[in-house]
Every structure is written in structure tokens, then in C-alpha cells.
Amino acid sequence: MQLHYPATSATTTQRAALYGGIALVVVSTLFLSLSIETSSFAMEAASILAAPIFFYIVGMLVYRYLEAPLAAPGIVSTGAWLAAISLILLHDERGLLPDTLATGYWSFVSVLAAALITWTGHRIRFWLLFPLVPLVQINALWAITGIINLPTEWVLPLSFALVFVWWEWRPSEPWTTVYRTSAVLLTLVLLLFSIWLPQPTQQMAFNTWAAGALMAVILGFRHGWINLVPLAIVLLFGATVWSLPASAWPLVWAGLAAATIGFIEWLDARQSGGAALAMGLAVLLAGAAALLVSVAPFVGVSIDPGVGMSTHLITGGLLVWLGWRRAVSLAMHIGLWLIASAWSALYFQMFPATYAYGLWLALLATLALLTEQIVTSRHKRKHKTATSITAAVVRWPLADLIIGLSAIILLWATLNILSAPVEVLAITLAVLVGIWFTAGLLYRLPALLHVAVWIAPIPYALLLMLWQPNLWTLARMGLAWQILGGAWLIVGHLLQRRRPAIRLPLFFGGYGLLALGMTLTLATPLLLPLSLGLVMVVSLITATLVILDRHTTWTTFSERLLPPEERPFAHAALNNIFLLFGAWLAVVWLQLMLGFTQLSLAQQGIVLVLLSSAWLLLGRLLPNIPNAIGWPVYTAGWFMWSVGLLQVFFSPSEAIIAAILGLLISGEALNRSRSAYWMPVFVLQVLFTSLQIVWLLALPGFSLLLAVMI
């Protein structure tokens, strides 16, 4: 049964008088006990303990027989304080005891006094005992650590066990408040004391601050107090700063941030204000760790490469996780680049003497591409519209990483172009082109596809030369690049489901490489027909696809460049420009191929005149087909006819055959079709026939003029 009285009407003056009297009694007893000197410990203890025992007995009697609500607890509280003073005085006299008893004396007396004073405080609930009870309990705990020879650096951390007990023990009020207040004050004292000690050790400071953090985490876990997590972060941060060397800070901070974020995610307490603060502190700590690794060489801190790599990997993973969970794009951007930094550091740890750095970064970019493809396919968030590189980098974190890594790889290849082995350089650039091409298709980036298409000839040429060294000539390389251009065209036609803007770089690159390759073979008679024939075939196939409306990319391009509603004739000419190229290049190619035959120049002319009629006939039929025009083929046919006539001019027999054949064909065509474009051909043929007659008969020049006038 607890001993307490109902509230009394004692005045402030009465209470002040009581408290002053208690203080005088305690101080007087202290000085009186200090003046007692005996050679026997028993006599010393009896004289010192007489006062507290007397006050305890009197106080109990007052409680029992008198109605003195203010005096009774005051007398007992005086006895408790005297007991605490006696404990201190007896500690100074323990030298009078035998050695066997002196060892455990202090611990036993401290525990006994703590039990007595704690029991007294809980029984009478007098406020003068509120500070005394926690103090004697702390003294008892430290006395026990002395008897068990606990190392000094573990005494302060073990004191947090008493803090935990005070916080978890819930007696009746007001002692619950007293114990929790004492727990907070003791925590502050322990933390400051571990640093304030005259000769503090790093181990003691670390153990004390870490124990405080552990206590905060345990209490937060038991009671769901997420608000204690920021306190734990601050305590652990202090533990590292006060006790660990600076070289170990980054990894410890990264691990602390990871543990904090994992704990908050596990509690799923994202909406709590304490959780937000803890999350912010964890992110700040992770950023500080990564920043310290980056600036360590400039501030004189030596950090092991493995520690730096692990720190960047952990902090990067944390930021990526938070960015994904909270839909914060900036966090994912930073996190991915921290992971890339760790990946780069791993290369220099494993393969420092090789030239595979570009391939190593390309492997990470490939993994990022694969991850992006998996994520977009799984969540059905495919990129459907073309965009710019800047917009892609800002919007999609993985695109930022992929494009950034590709730029670094290209820069590395440029800087090491003279020192790196050709094989490594060629493979690196080939992989880089593949990354650009895949990323361009995945993110709908026409600019990236343009870069991939025009950089591809470099690794393509290097690989071909490694495989066949005899290709080291411009003409042969031009022919090889034409094959690559044809491959780009085939790929562009296979991507029918892609938008024209995405396929346009492939077609531009393909046509450009075909033209470049033909230019490089102009000075090589043996390769020029093959190169020119390839361009001719591609032009004719493209013209056919355009007429059949199967080349939507070129159709869209020509419509945007020259709208058919505003410039119909110009649009039709641009849309059929491949027909013009194919028809004219066919004439040139045919002339070259005839040169490889055993035919004479005049006989070649007869062949050209005969074949030109086919061109003219095709030019007549093409306008009957939608989306087709005939004048590109007409002009090529006229050109072929003119070349044939020039070749047979000085050969009488072939000239006569050509004249007769030309007159028959042009006259019949003019009679049948009544088309105006046959009139120039017919006039040209008449003029040619007149020239031939004048030349064969050796007639004077005025007869030619007469013939022309007629």
C-alpha cells in the first residue's frame, strides 16, 4: 500500500521552510560525518548510518500515528538523502575493510542503497526524491560494471540499458514522467561525456553514440515511433565523425542511409512527418558520402578505391530506388550516374592495363538498354512519338545514362585512336553504333539514328580491313560502303511499322553511302560499272516502290518539302526523282557495259538507238500509272538516242541503218500517239539524215541549209 496523503493546503512559505530545513539537516550531517575519525570500519559505518536510520524511523512513526501530510514525507525524504550521503562517505572509508571485502563492498552497498531509495521514492512520491532515485540507480549500475571489470570504453554504452529500462518501465505517475525525463537527460550526459572526457578514445565515443542510436531504433521499432529515426541518424553520424577516420566515413554513411531507407520502407510509414525528415536526412547523408568520395583527393583524404566504389554503388542504388518509388526523376538520374561511376571504378580495379574501357562502359549501356526494354514492355509504356535528344535525356533517366555513356565512349575512342589496338577500337565503335541504333529505335530519336548511320562506316571499314587487308583502297572501300548503304535501306524498308521520321535517317544514310561509294570508284574502270549498277538498281527499285506507294518515308518527306496542293508539278518531280536517277544512270551504265563487249563504237551506237526506243516507249506508258510521270524517262531516252547517233555518224553503214530505223520509229510513234514530245525526236532524226546524205554525197554546205529549210 502506497503512503501518500491527499492534497493539503500548505502555503508556499511552509513548503519553503520544510525544504530549507531538510537541506540544512543534510548539509550539517555531511560535515558532522566528515569530522568523525575512527580506526574501525564498523564504528565509522554505525556513526554515519545513524542519522538516516533515525530519520527513516521517525518518518515511519509520523506516517503511522500522526496526521502530518507535509512533515511525514519530508522526514522520510531527509532520511533517503542522508542515506545517499552516507553511501558517498562510506566509499571514502572502504580502505578500513579487508582486501577480500573491499572488492565487492562498493557494488553491494550501491545496489542496496539504490533499492532502498527507489522503494522509498515509489512509496511516498515526494518531489525531493525525484532527482535522487535516478542518480542512485546510475551509481549502482556503474558500481556493478566496476565489480565485473568491464572495459572503460563499454561503461557508457552499457548505461543506455538503464535509459531503455527507464523509458519502458511504466509505474504510476508521476514516476513515469520522472523516469522518461531522466532518460533524456542521461542520454545527453552520456553523449557529451564521451567527448568531454580528459582522454576520450575513439572506441568509447563510437560505442557510446552507436549505443544511443541503437536505443533510439529499438524504441522506435517497439512503439512505431518513426520520429526517433532522425535522432538515430544524427547519433550514428556523430559516432562516425567523433570516432572513425575520415577514410571510413563514406562507406559508413552510405550503409547508414541504406539501413534508414530500408527501415522506413519496411515500416511503410511514408506519410509520417518523421519519416519524411528521416528520409531527407538519409538522402543528405548518402549525398555527403558520394560527395566526399569525389572530392577526397582535393581535400587531402585518402580513400581506398574499393570503399569509393562501394559507396557510389550503395548511394546510387538508394537514389534509384527512391526515385522509382517516389517518382522523382532527378534522384534516378543522379543514382544511375553514381552506379556508372562505381562501374567505371570497378574496371580500373580489375583491368587497369587494358584498352577495354570503352567496351566496359558499353556493357553497362547495353544493360541499361535491356532494362529499359523490359520496363517499357512490362508496363506497356512504349515511346510512340519522335523526340529530341535533349528532351529524352531530361525525361528518361536511363536514356540520360545511355546517351551519356555513349558520348564518353566516343570521347575515349577519339583520345585513344593512336594508342589503342585497332581490333579493340573497331569492336568498341561497332558496339557503340549498335547502342545508338537500338536507343534511337527505343526512344524514337531520329538524331541518334543519324549519328549511328553515319558513324557506322568507320568500324565497318576497320573490321573489313582486319578481315581482308587487301581492301585498303578507296575504290574497294567505296564499294564496301555501298553494300552497307544497301543494308541500311533494307533495314529501313523492314521497319514498316515505325514512323517515317524514325526511318528517314536510315534512308538518308543508305542513299548517301551509295553516292559516296560511287564517287570513290569513279577512277577505277573495273569497279565503276559494278558501283554504278548498284546505284542504278537501287534507284529503279526505289522509284518502283514510290510509284506503288510503298515508300511512305520518301512520300512523306516530299509532301512536307513541296506540298502537292501548293506546287503539284514540283512535288511530282521530286517524288519521282529516283526514276530520273535510275533512267539516266541506266544509260551511262549501259554505255559502260557496251565498252566491255567486242562491238565497235558504231555498233554500240546502233544498240543505243535501238534501246532508246524502249526508254521512249516506257516514258509514254508511265503517265498512265498513278503517281508516275514520264519525262524523266523521255529525257534519258533522248539522251541515249543522241549518244547513239553520235557514235554511228562516221560509219556510213551503221549511220544509214540508224537513220532509217530512227525515221521509222519516230515517224510511226508521232503518227500513232500524236504526242508533242515525239516531234523533237523526229526533227532531230531528219536533221541527222540530212547530214548523213550531205556527208556521203560530198555536197556543198548550202545544200544542207537548203535541206534544213525544206
Describe the protein's architecture and organization.
The protein has 30 helices and no strands. It is 78% helix and 0% strand. It has 710 residues and is an all-alpha fold. It has helices at 12-34, 41-65, 71-92, 99-124, 132-147, 155-168, 175-196, 202-223, 228-243, 249-267, 273-299, 305-326, 329-350, 357-379, 389-395, 397-415, 422-443, 446-455, 457-467, 474-494, 500-520, 528-547, 552-561, 568-575, 577-595, 601-621, 631-648, 652-673, 678-697, 701-709. Among the domains are: 1-150, no CATH class; 597-710, no CATH class.
What is the general shape?
A: rod-shaped
The average pLDDT is 78
Instruction: List the secondary-structure elements in sequence, H or E.
Output: HHHHHHHHHHHHHHHHHHHHHHHHHHHHHH
Determine the number of helices (DSSP H or I, runs of at least 4 residues).
30
**Share of residues in helices:** over 70%
SS elements, strand count: 0
Largest sheet, if any? none
Provide the structure class. mainly alpha
- Kindly estimate the percentage of residues that lie in beta strands according to DSSP: under 5%
Determine Rg (CA atoms, Å). 50 Å
Break the fold down into its secondary structure elements and pairings.
Elements: H1 12-34, H2 41-65, H3 71-92, H4 99-124, H5 132-147, H6 155-168, H7 175-196, H8 202-223, H9 228-243, H10 249-267, H11 273-299, H12 305-326, H13 329-350, H14 357-379, H15 389-395, H16 397-415, H17 422-443, H18 446-455, H19 457-467, H20 474-494, H21 500-520, H22 528-547, H23 552-561, H24 568-575, H25 577-595, H26 601-621, H27 631-648, H28 652-673, H29 678-697, H30 701-709
Helix pairs in contact: 1-3, 2-3, 3-4, 4-5, 6-7, 6-8, 7-8, 8-9, 9-10, 9-11, 10-11, 10-12, 11-12, 12-13, 13-14, 13-16, 14-16, 14-17, 15-16, 16-17, 17-18, 17-19, 18-21, 20-21, 20-22, 21-22, 21-23, 22-25, 25-26, 25-27, 26-27, 26-28, 28-29, 29-30
